[in-house]
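Reopening: Enoyl-CoA hydratase/isomerase family protein still failing for me.
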Amino acid sequence: MSHLEIERHAEVVTLALRRGKVNAIDEELIRELRAALDELVVDRQARALILTGRGPFFSFGLDVPAIYALPEEACSRFLADFTALYTRLYTYPKPIIAAVNGHAAGGGCMLALAGDRRIMAAGRARIGLNEIAFGASVFAGSVEMLAACVGQRRAETLLMSGALHDAAAALDAGLVDRLVEPEALPEACLEEARGLAARQPNAYAGLKRLLRGPVAERMRRREEDSIRDFVQIWYSAETREALREIEIRD
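Support: Ran it again with your exact input. Result attached.
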């Protein structure tokens, strides 16, 4: 795979995003992640997954320049694929640890929210849903995952601020479950994943389905309308002007 690095550590499999400097999410990365998830879900030796990034970024979100250039219909299809990906992660029957090794903004934060646990490297990395800062919206699924993680009122505050939070603030807000020093992150995530992998797989999957099923149902029911709203805002004159000022050096 060109944008996804897969490493096995006995019963734990690490999926590491490695697309350019910021691990921006494009169609190919989505396809590779979905293919890996499909393969690992039937792999009995793979009992838990770790999702992380390579370099100083977990993922800085969707590939804005690429999406900016898409026609509206193609953009809608891409967003449907992306939201289906994070819904798959959120409902995946096996444990997933999000190892937030670096900045996780927008779509990158959404992928992290889909994990069962989020462990973040202390230091300069920031995380958040910052779409409103450049005049864009988010998706129903991301709102549901955020509210399930931090509570409805705090989710409103985080979304409306559009801020990216450092590790300490992210822990305080409930965006992440634990902070570790950057050099300790791989081992800490492996330890956490091995602990969850030791649970009886069917029981774990059943409990996860009970806990997350109602949230996932709301995500699916509202997602199509939210994508339509997102696209309408994305192609508005005000947002296009703001997006022209954004430059991601990949």
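The chain has ten helices and ten strands. If you still see a failure, please send the error message rather than a screenshot.
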